[in-house]
Inverse folding.
């Protein structure tokens, strides 16, 4: 008798997965290898930024008080005592009616408290004149105006992106403490599967899930070990799953998780003694998505159907991997959008529709990306987001407001809110 599975809600499935995530610890890496990693330490300002008062313009550093009373009819003269390029400092304090030529980024000389842009002066010989008064502090970038020494600027658990790299470099973090990245095992199961380079044969199809998941991991900067394809035979699959589990931190299989005669993943989990967290989620596609845990490792049994496999990865696998690294923003960012065309199918389960979003006169509009069955491969190639249609609804019409989840964003959000 076929097992009747009890579906759980998507939010509950996300919660269960995240509850079973095990962190792998931290390591120190050189800054040049830190892009895409998750910070394991907060970034603390080791000094003020800027570290000294500096000029934001190319011009002249003056004492504001010497410009008092300047006007078009009363141009005030200044004597230039030297030049300060960025990286240099003035030799002496400026005195009354004196000025330094100063370049953008150069330290403000002693006694100067304002900067005049070249364009605001008329130069002649060793000096220039001004036609307006300047205030104390005008055109000065103050020490510490960007970051104050000791301030915590970025929290541990944040993904390091190019801007984060700039901040780390600013404070001299030549080495950074980051989370250890998991090595993920990938196995595609299915007797029908051919390799990408193979010619089609009767009854067979090419393996698209394996390459797709490799690319989903590449997009996250995560390394993997590919175990290729295994035919739907219990012993063969069990052997590879066991080997992969021993060699990796996390296993993704595709196919073989439903109730078919040759769907062997449930039997393999049982044989291994893995705890099945769930084997049915109230969603389409991907209702058969199964996740099990064994000795602190997660086994993701993604559906064989390409759209279901893709969606299962984005909804559950990706957050789990980010969570293993202590990442605090593991979920896809969400937006409101207007539905760009009718979607008439009723939704007994929450439906995740691959779609493309864009900005139009109506604001953000999301249009389903075409053939949207669980078995579809064409729409996953076209979409840039997933429309979320709640369960219990009878289809949606053009102009309805919907939630969309953004694909491909390296920066996620901290909460699953659907
Ligand atoms: N009696 C029932 N049958 C099915 C149910 C059910 O609840 N009761 N669920 C259906 C749903 S929903 C889905 S989704 C599929 C899931 O099946 P599996 O995850 O067990 O996957 P397979 O049976 O191995 O394959 C399904 C489908 O996907 C193709 N496939 C598999 N691997 C790949 C790959 N690497 N690249 C491309 N395509 C692949 C495979 O050929 C099948 O067409 O079960 C339903 N059945
Ligand atoms: O598990 Mo399936 O809901 O059609 O993708
Ligand atoms: Mg099956």
């Amino acid at each position: 008798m076929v097992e009747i599975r009890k579906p759980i809600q998507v939010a509950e499935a996300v919660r269960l997965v995240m509850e079973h995530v095990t962190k792998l610890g931290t390591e120190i890496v050189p800054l040049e290898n830190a892009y895409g990693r998750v910070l394991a330490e907060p970034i603390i300002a080791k000094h003020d930024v800027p570290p000294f008062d500096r000029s934001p313009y190319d011009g002249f550093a003056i004492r504001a008080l010497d410009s008092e009373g300047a006007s078009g009819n009363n141009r005030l003269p200044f004597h230039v005592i030297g030049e300060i390029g960025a990286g240099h400092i003035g030799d002496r304090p400026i005195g009354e009616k004196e000025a330094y030529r100063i370049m953008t980024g150069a330290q403000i000389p002693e006694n100067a408290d304002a900067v005049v842009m070249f364009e605001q002066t008329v130069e002649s010989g060793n000096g220039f004149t001004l036609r307006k008064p300047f205030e104390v502090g005008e055109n000065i970038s103050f020490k510490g105006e960007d970051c104050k020494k000791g301030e915590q600027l970025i929290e541990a658990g944040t993904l390091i992106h190019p801007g984060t790299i700039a901040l780390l470099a600013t404070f001299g973090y030549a080495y950074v403490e980051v989370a250890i990245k998991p090595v993920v095992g990938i196995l595609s199961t299915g007797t029908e599967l051919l390799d990408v380079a193979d010619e089609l044969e009767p009854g067979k199809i090419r393996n698209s899930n394996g390459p797709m998941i490799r690319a989903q991991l590449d997009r996250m900067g995560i390394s993997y070990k590919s175990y290729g394809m295994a035919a739907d035979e219990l012993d063969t699959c069990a052997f590879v799953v066991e080997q992969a589990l021993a060699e990796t931190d996390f296993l993704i299989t595709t196919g073989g998780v439903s109730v078919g005669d040759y769907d062997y993943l449930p039997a393999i989990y049982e044989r291994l003694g893995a705890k099945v967290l769930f084997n049915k989620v109230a969603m389409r596609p991907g209702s058969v998505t199964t996740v099990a845990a064994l000795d602190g490792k997660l086994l993701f049994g993604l559906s064989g159907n390409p759209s279901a496999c893709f969606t299962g990865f984005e909804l559950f696998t990706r957050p789990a991997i980010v969570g293993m690294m202590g990442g605090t923003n593991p979920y896809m960012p969400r937006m409101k959008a207007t539905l760009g065309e009718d979607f008439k199918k009723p939704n007994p389960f929450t439906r995740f529709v691959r779609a493309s979003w864009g900005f139009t006169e109506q604001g953000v509009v999301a249009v389903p990306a075409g053939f949207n069955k669980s078995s579809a491969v064409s729409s996953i190639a076209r979409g840039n987001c997933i429309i979320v249609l709640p369960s219990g609804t009878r289809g949606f019409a053009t102009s309805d407001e919907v939630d969309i989840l953004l694909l491909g964003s390296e920066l996620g959000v901290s909460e699953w809110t659907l």
